[in-house]
Amino acid sequence: xxxTDVTISxxxxxxxxxxxxxxxxxxxxxxxxxxxxxxxxxxxxxxxERNEEVKVIIFTGIGRYYCAGxxxxxxxxxxxxxxxxAQIIEHNQALFDAFLDLTKPIIIAINGPAIGASVxxxxxxDATIAAESATFSTPFARLGIPPxxxxxxxFARLMGTTEAQRMLNQEGWVPSAAEALQCGLVDQVVANxxxxxxxxxxxxxxxxxxxxxxxxxxxxxTQGRKELKAVNAQESALLADAFLASPxxxxxxxxxxxKRKYIPAAVFGGMWLTRxxxxxxx
Length: 282
Known about the structure:
The protein is an alpha/beta fold. The protein folds into two domains: 3-244, 2-enoyl-CoA Hydratase, Chain A, domain 1; 246-282, no CATH class. It has eleven helices and eight strands. It has a six-stranded mixed beta sheet, with helices on both faces. A hairpin with a 2-residue loop joins strand 1 (11-16) and strand 2 (19-24). Helix 2 runs antiparallel to helix 9 (222-243) and helix 5 (151-159) packs across helix 6.
């Protein structure tokens, strides 16, 4: 059997002494969130909920990047405009609800640069530990889309309004690990080679304490979870509208052209040119 015949899992899973470690395993794609990757970790979350042996979850990545964010080209499928809008809402809402629905504590271990949804989803977890090489980017305003992943609420609660706006507005501030610690986006920064050790130590501490699931700076009760889900639903609808608006479509076309990805660029270019026709069916 050749190497090309081997199916490589997008997510590695290891359970030891009550700690379930889930590791994104697409370093050559910067651990971008394709449908395959998102399905894998959402399924793993559900399995963890049912497994009484799992007490704490650690979520991390392999390679230079923690995650390059959602890979739009690998997740969106063209179709009737109204169905496409509904699909965007459904997928985005389900992505972040997967984190909100977890009843077991989850630690995010950021091993390198984190972008978009991988940053916002981390704020819905119990703690974030970052390696020194980590950076945090949420380029929503530059892409012409609104905040997602409850970041319209959680960023201000964690960092304060000023720093939250620096990340979410046109400035697109990308804090380093040290800056993220200083402003409250992360809880701890360690040397790159100490990340796994630090995450495991915190997980074991929580097990010893019998710690329950807690949102950072937010009510962890059923009501608090319900409120965050309502924010997620509202953001998902606004995101779908933005994805189907001219500025975003044209921006994606230009971006793909700059990367010499001519076929997907042509698709977005065609969408932009014909938008006056198909937008009537939204």
